[in-house]
Amino acid sequence: MNAILQTLVSTVVQGSMLALIAIGMTLVYGTLRVLNMAQGVMVMVGGFAAYTTVVRTGLPTWICLIVAAVVTFLLGVLTYYSAVKPLLGRVGVDFEMTAFITTFAIATIVQSVVLLIYGPRQKPFDPLWPGRIDITSDVSITYHSLIMAAVAIGALVGLGLFLSRSRYGLAITAVAQNLDAARLMGIPARRVYVVTMGIAAALAGIAGVLLAPLYFVYPNAGDLPLLQALIVVIFAGLGSVRGTIYASYIIGFLSAAVAIYWKSAYALPVLYVVILLVLVVRPNGIAGKPQEARL
Amino acid sequence: MLEVRDVRVGYGDSVVIDSMSLDVAEGEFVVVIGPNGHGKSTLLRAISGLLPLKKGSINYRGQRIDNLATEQIVARGLVQIPQGDMLFPDMSVQENLLLGAFVHPDRAARAARLAEVYELFPKLSERSSQQARTLSGGERRMLALGRGLMTRADLLMIDEPSLGLAPVLVDEVYERIAQIAKSGITVLLVEENFAHVREVADRVILIENGGVVLAGTVDEVLENEAVTATYLGIGGE
What we know:
heterodimer, A: ABC transporter involved in vitamin B12 uptake, BtuC
C-alpha cells in the first residue's frame, strides 16, 4: 500500500518535471523541425542562475525562479540566432540534421563556459520550501516536491492557455500546422520561432531550479534531463503536445515503479528497453502522427 | 493598385515565369487564366513574397513590395487565399478565422469582422467550434475564403477557388466571391476554367508558359476567336 502511494507521488512529481522539460522540445520541433539538443543545458543554466541569485544577492528563493526563467529565455533566443536562424531557408542543407548538430554544439559551448566560470564541483541548493509532510506513518512528501509538482503543473496549464487563447500562442500552433498558410495570414514566422525557442528554454530553466535541490548544480546537470526528455519526445511522437504530456507521466510512472519496486539504477535501462519496444511497434510514437502537420 | 513588371520567378535554377507584366486597378475583378503548371500559382506566391524574384519588380499602391516579408505585404492589405485551402487542420473554425485577423490586434475590430464573416458564411457560424479537418470540401473552401476576409484585405488574391469542388458548390463559391468583390474589395483570381469566371470578371489575362498571351475585358478576349479556341476551349461563338 505504501509502495503504491509512493509510486503515485513520485509519478506526479517526476512526470510533471519531465513534461516541463520535454514540452519545450516538442514546441520547438513542432514549429521549427529542430530537435533542440540545447534543451538540457537550459535546465543546467536555470539551476546556475538560481544558485547565483541566491548566493550573491540573498533574495527570496521564489525570485530565483523568475531570474532563471528570464536568463534561459534569453539563452534560448540566443541559441535561435546563433544555431538555427543561419540555417533557415538555405538551399541544399539538410536542415533537421544540421540544426540537430548546431544546437548540440551550442550545448557543448554553454557547458564549457559554465565549467570555466564555476568549476566542476557540485553545488548544493536549498529546497524552495524545506521540510516534509507525513501522509501515512511510513510515507512522507517533502514540501519541495509539492512545489515541484505545483509549479510544473501551473506552468504547463499556463502554457496550454497561452497556446489556445492568446494571439501569439495560436500563431505558434498555426506555424506548426501549416507554415505557408500562417505566413499568408500575416503571421511573422521568424518572430514566432524566436518566441517559441525562448519559451521552451524558459520552461527548462524553471525545471532546472526545481531539480537543483535534488541533483545539485553543476555543469553536467543537464545531461540526464536531456536524455530523459529525448526519451519522452520520441516516445510521444515528435511534435505532439498532448502526446508529450501523456508520455511524460507514463515515463515518470515507469521510472518511479522500477525505482521503488526494483532498484533505482535499473530505471534508465528499463526505460530504454520500453522505448525500443514502443518504437518497434509504433515507429511514430504513441501520439502516432506521421511526418506532416503536428502540434 | 498592383503593378507586376517584367518579373522572372522560379524554383532553384528552373524558371517558371519570365518577363511577365500585369496590372490590377482598384476595384477591379481580374482573372488570370491558363493551363495547369504554367505559372499561375507561382505568380501569386511571388506577389505574396513567398518566392523571391529573380528579376523585375512588384509595386502595390505605388510602393515596391518585392523586397518585403510576407507578413508585411499582408499587413498592407494584399492578401492571398492559397490553393487547396491550407487550413489549420487541428484548430477550430473560429480559431482559423481569428488567425486570419492576426495582423489586427484590436479585439473589438476583430470581433466585428468575425460577425461579418459569419453573416456571409452562416455555415461557418454553425460549425465555429468544430475542427477544420472535419469540414466538408465546400465548407473548407468557405472557411479559407472567410479566413482571407478576416485579414481586411484591400486586394484579395484567390488561387483556383473551384479546385476539387462539385459543380453546384463551384457556383456557390463564385456567388460569394462576387459578393466579396461587390463589397469593394479588389480581386485578382487565378482559374483554369474560363466558364467559371465569365460572368464575374472585369478583365481577363491569359497566360501560357510563364508569359502573358492576351489581356483585356471579357468581351475583348472573346472576340479573339483564335485565342478563345486555343486557350478557353469554347470555339468561335
